[in-house]
Amino acid sequence: MLKNKKTYLFFIIPGLFFYALFVVYPIFSAAQISLFKWNGIGEKVFVGFQNYIELFTNPILLGQFGNALKNSLIIFIMTACFMIPLQIIYAYMIYSKTRGSKLLQSIIFSPQFISTPVIVFIFTLLLDSNIGAINNFFSKIGLNFLVKPWLGLPSIGIYIVWLMISWAGFGVGMMYFIAAMNMISTDSLESAYLDGAGFWKRLLLIVVPQIRNTIFNLILISYITAMTIFDYSYILGGVSGGVDGSVDVMSLFFYRIAFGDNNPLGGNLSENSMGMGTTIAVSLFFIIFIVAVFQMILVFRKDDING
């Protein structure tokens, strides 16, 4: 009888082993490397927390860190304030099977089959200062004052990156909301309908409260994505993160320092590229981890209050 109760261990141990090998061990390994001065090839020199002190006291490093963190937070805030509410609305329209919902679903999910370089290329064709469709449109309708080199304006660079990410990932988040809405009891929706609640009132008063955990989870996923996104900024702005770092993000900042663009042995700090790179990676881990723990505590507290 006791053996039968412990058979679940045979299912847990393999997954736990690979999780420890490919997730837990790299985290502790990176933390250990961050305590050394090392370029990834030569001898390691133990420096303790000197890498962390340098990261937050060196004006150049701190400036790049702050700029990358600011841009990553802009992506997150824009996603949380604009994209997630739109995803809920469109998911509700598809869930309610409104007219044209099938066509809408196909259009929204279609970007999932397009690779990142192609998406960047599409937006380049739209926003290019010479051949861009948007500038050509403004010229034809006489709004020449709106014709601008959109991709060359540092002030809007990160918002263009956000548009690319949002267009590409809109359907993914919407899929989560549709799945959550399918778990809502139809009795509550029917009761609200009989009580005179309209289409949008049912969304606000019935649907949104019952999918709040999914909303919190999507906010957390959006935060993690914003902090770890790399490919869009790299393709659009290169290793330097665009003009004046306008599209620089945290993962690109880590890549630039750890692997760099000037030295085959490492990043711009060639003598300590791996040491400083892992220092940035560990700092980024804690930035994500602290917010994730806070979000989990918030969700559990709300569940306890409602339960």
TrEMBL record:
<feature type="transmembrane region" description="Helical">
    <location>
        <begin position="107"/>
        <end position="127"/>
    </location>
</feature>
<dbReference type="Pfam" id="PF00528">
    <property type="entry name" value="BPD_transp_1"/>
</dbReference>
<dbReference type="GO" id="GO:0055085">
    <property type="term" value="P:transmembrane transport"/>
</dbReference>
<feature type="transmembrane region" description="Helical">
    <location>
        <begin position="73"/>
        <end position="95"/>
    </location>
</feature>
<feature type="transmembrane region" description="Helical">
    <location>
        <begin position="156"/>
        <end position="179"/>
    </location>
</feature>
<keyword id="KW-1133">Transmembrane helix</keyword>
<dbReference type="InterPro" id="IPR000515">
    <property type="entry name" value="MetI-like"/>
</dbReference>
<keyword id="KW-0812">Transmembrane</keyword>
<feature type="domain" description="ABC transmembrane type-1">
    <location>
        <begin position="69"/>
        <end position="297"/>
    </location>
</feature>
<comment type="similarity">
    <text>Belongs to the binding-protein-dependent transport system permease family.</text>
</comment>
<keyword id="KW-0813">Transport</keyword>
<keyword id="KW-0472">Membrane</keyword>
<feature type="transmembrane region" description="Helical">
    <location>
        <begin position="280"/>
        <end position="300"/>
    </location>
</feature>
<dbReference type="InterPro" id="IPR050809">
    <property type="entry name" value="UgpAE/MalFG_permease"/>
</dbReference>
<feature type="transmembrane region" description="Helical">
    <location>
        <begin position="215"/>
        <end position="235"/>
    </location>
</feature>
<protein>
    <recommendedName>
        <fullName>ABC transmembrane type-1 domain-containing protein</fullName>
    </recommendedName>
</protein>
<keyword id="KW-1003">Cell membrane</keyword>
<feature type="transmembrane region" description="Helical">
    <location>
        <begin position="7"/>
        <end position="28"/>
    </location>
</feature>
<dbReference type="InterPro" id="IPR035906">
    <property type="entry name" value="MetI-like_sf"/>
</dbReference>
<dbReference type="GO" id="GO:0005886">
    <property type="term" value="C:plasma membrane"/>
</dbReference>
